[in-house]
Design a protein that fits this description.
It is built from eleven helices and no strands. The protein has helices spanning about 1-40, 45-55, 60-70, 75-80, 85-100, 100-120, 125-150, 160-180, 185-190, 195-225, 230-235.
Length: about 240
């Protein structure tokens, strides 16, 4: 019975998020056409644009969850004969599916832009591998954002994803520049090592499993302990 409820909620979440994903894909298609018309035959600009805009898909389901919390939909879900585990797992599954286009964009960007710089051959298996790693990375951000929005006061979290994103970008750049004299050369040397892909995949898999577990617990607790505020549902 729980499985049927899970897939029913997942279908609803996918249907609700589909227009946002379609608009994002249409924008990416228009951007790609712009670079083709402009004559970007090397694919550098398009590759960078695809990688940068992949972040959009991270917030598709979190923003939908935010809207649900503000308009009373989340309160309605708590009145249904559905456990918090089912609601949490269906919403996290929707977040994972919503980030798949972003992973595809990063894989294409890798083939167009990063692979030539790193000296890696952009063939089918390597692109699929990069796409899988990219999905793990961006899905983790979406999982955590959904869980935090469900579990905690939304108004205190509005700026958190953007703050964390900028902190990770600039903080990571500062740390790398301090630790390595030539980050690109060091990265190229690391990529050339035969065991490098296995280390990266292992670390990302462990991180994914840990974050999925944490996100599930937070989202489940948020559903089970949910108490709507008058301002959130328009009373």
């Amino acid at each position: 019975m729980d499985e049927l409820r899970f897939f029913a909620l997942l279908r609803v979440d996918i249907k609700r998020g589909a227009p946002t994903t379609a608009r994002a894909l249409a924008a990416i298609a228009a951007l790609s056409l712009f670079f083709v018309v402009r004559g970007d035959t090397a694919g550098d600009s398009l590759g960078i644009a695809l990688a940068a805009t992949s972040v959009m898909y991270v917030m598709t389901v979190p923003l939908m969850t935010f809207k649900d919390k503000m308009d009373g939909t989340l309160e309605f879900l708590t009145t249904l004969p559905v456990s918090g585990s089912v609601v949490a797992s269906s919403r996290l599954a929707a977040a994972g599916l919503a980030t798949l286009p972003g992973a595809g964009q990063i894989a294409v960007a890798f083939g167009l832009f990063a692979a030539p710089i790193l000296g890696v051959e952009a063939v089918g298996p390597s692109i699929l591998y990069i796409g899988a790693l990219a999905w793990i990375a961006i899905a983790m951000g979406s999982f955590l954002a959904v869980a935090l929005i469900i579990r905690f006061d939304v108004t205190n979290l509005l700026s958190a994803p953007f703050f964390l994103m900028f902190a990770a970008i600039f903080g990571g750049d500062w740390v790398v520049s301090k630790l390595l004299d030539d980050p690109l050369a060091s990265f190229q040397a690391f990529v050339a090592m035969p065991w490098a892909p296995h280390i990266v995949a292992g670390l990302l898999a462990i991180s994914l499993l840990s974050l999925v577990g944490l996100s599930f617990v937070l989202a489940k607790q948020g559903i089970e302990r949910y108490r709507p505020t008058p301002d959130a549902i328009g009373w």
